[in-house]
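Predict both folds.
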Amino acid sequence: MLRTNGLPSSKIINTNIDPEIHKTQDALKLKESCQQFESILWAKLWKDMRKTAMSISGNDKGRPYQQMEELTLEMASDDLVTSSGGAGLWKMLYDSMIGKVAADHEAEQLRNADNEAAGFDVQG
């Protein structure tokens, strides 16, 4: 963990990850999954806050558009994360897991190189 002015910083620095790894299919799937996780988390948080606010005010009974409100919150959460990056939780999750994707990719390349050297068909 980095320290700035005596305070810990939450920046994660992956200096040993090949930039090309971020363009692989697995990395793109990981990014999408992390973004979906943050979106679901925000939607759940907002729904629970709305529910609590409605119960405190006494307006929680007989709301005909409750399902539409929940769908709107889900759509807003998804848009927040995908268009503006959200709060960055998805990025922290992605950064913490991309090393595994890079290691798997490197292991696959080594297997393919070994198979080619042994004369096996790696296209299969």
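Second protein follows, with its predicted structure tokens after the sequence.
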Amino acid sequence: MSRTATQIVTRAATAAVFATALLFGGAGAALAQSADQVKADFARAVYKNSAAKVHNERPQPLLRAVVVLRVKLNEQNQWQAEVFRDNPQQPEMTQEALASVASLPAPTGLSPKAAELLRNEGVVEAWLFQTDGRFALKTLAKPQRGA
């Protein structure tokens, strides 16, 4: 690879790392632009903020609960979650998913496009709960194990 190509690749990789860090918790202007990037950055922020409650394994075949939330930013830059799907027999799992959103710090350095997306449409994310109560988010979860 030529020196110029190596510099371009290095700069692109560095920008990607900074975009993730900046979108949810860093200073400066975030580079994340697409809806998929914003959703993945949101999921990483939940993972970072709820590390003790998250697992990084393949989800078990029969999940304890699946909770789906639409998460938006309000005008005060605070996270708000709306329940799309829950398990009425497992209300504590819905509360756990909502708590993982409520405890997120306000994002800093959002690009105008990311801020607009999060305020208008938000992101829809599924919390996949294991029997032990730990969760993975669908956006970042490994493939589910077979039955």
